[in-house]
Automatic annotation (TrEMBL):
<dbReference type="InterPro" id="IPR036514">
    <property type="entry name" value="SGNH_hydro_sf"/>
</dbReference>
<protein>
    <submittedName>
        <fullName>Uncharacterized protein</fullName>
    </submittedName>
</protein>
Length: 265
């Protein structure tokens, strides 16, 4: 065998070796691609599980919110429709003679341990409440009037401490308000004022249960327009806000001479 044959065989051997290495590299590449595809598949499966868990979490949270709303409604009906043991109603105008505080810092008022009266605060029509229609588990109902006061004015009186003595002992306080606001502003503006009032009340008097009835339908010479549609929209917004559990709302209808709870006989 001459030198040419030797070189030829050497080249063939090297070529075969290169082919073998190429095959090995190709197999490595295919294996790497399989690993990559498997990783992508696992990632997709993991993301699917995460999305499903997120949906389940949202469903559970929604159910919890619904349950809380039902419990709040049940509590309000229980409180409002308990038998009356003894009703003693007194009426007197609210006077704002206390000095105005320099700031609106929330200072929690500490109520007495034993309470004996429920308080109802509202405009000049409030004394028309018929005691037998004002269900309460307590012995007395005290009605106070603040003639011509809108929500903003009641909020100011709340901050100024005008209601501190009145709210020092009762388990519940009912504020009848909104008609005056709705005669001059939109339901959205009025509900914002209401939400601000609720927030302040719960910070200042955390141990007093707050009730804010629906604004009743009524008309008088001071109103220049029909506000029935406006009142209806506001009452719907009030229902939505009551789902938070920060206060209780219910229907309160007005006849010519009295407030009547809806459904009472």
């Amino acid at each position: 065998m001459d030198a040419t044959d030797v070189r030829l065989n050497t080249y063939k051997t090297e070529i075969n070796s290169l082919k073998h290495q190429q095959q090995l590299l190709q197999k490595d590449s295919e294996y790497s691609q399989s690993i990559t595809d498997l990783y992508k598949s696992q990632t997709t499966a993991t993301q699917t599980i995460i999305d499903q868990n997120k949906s389940l979490t949202e469903l559970v949270e929604g159910l919890q919110t619904t349950i809380t709303s039902y419990n709040t409604t049940l509590t309000s009906f229980t409180t409002l429709c308990a038998p009356i043991i003894n009703n003693s109603v007194t009426t007197s105008p609210i006077t704002s003679q206390m000095p105005t505080r320099s700031s609106q810092t929330h200072v929690v008022r500490k109520p007495k341990i034993q309470s004996s009266k429920n308080v109802v605060i509202g405009d000049s029509s409030t004394p028309d409440l018929i005691p037998k229609h004002l269900c309460t588990t307590q012995h007395q109902v005290q009605v106070k009037t603040s003639s011509g006061s809108n929500i903003n004015r009641l909020h100011e009186q709340l901050h100024n401490g005008d209601f501190d003595q009145l709210l020092s002992s009762p388990p519940t306080a009912t504020f009848i308000m909104g008609t005056i606001n709705l005669s001059t502003e939109s339901p959205l503006q009025t509900i914002e004022h209401t939400k601000s009032f609720i927030s302040s009340f719960n910070k200042l008097h955390p141990n007093v249960k707050l009730f804010i009835p629906h604004v009743p339908y009524r008309s008088y010479s001071g109103l220049q327009r029909d506000i029935e549609t406006t009142v209806n929209e506001y009452n719907q917004l009030l229902d939505q806000e009551a789902a938070s559990g920060n206060f209780v709302t219910y229907d309160l209808n007005i006849t010519d001479d009295s407030f009547l709870l809806k459904g009472d006989n």
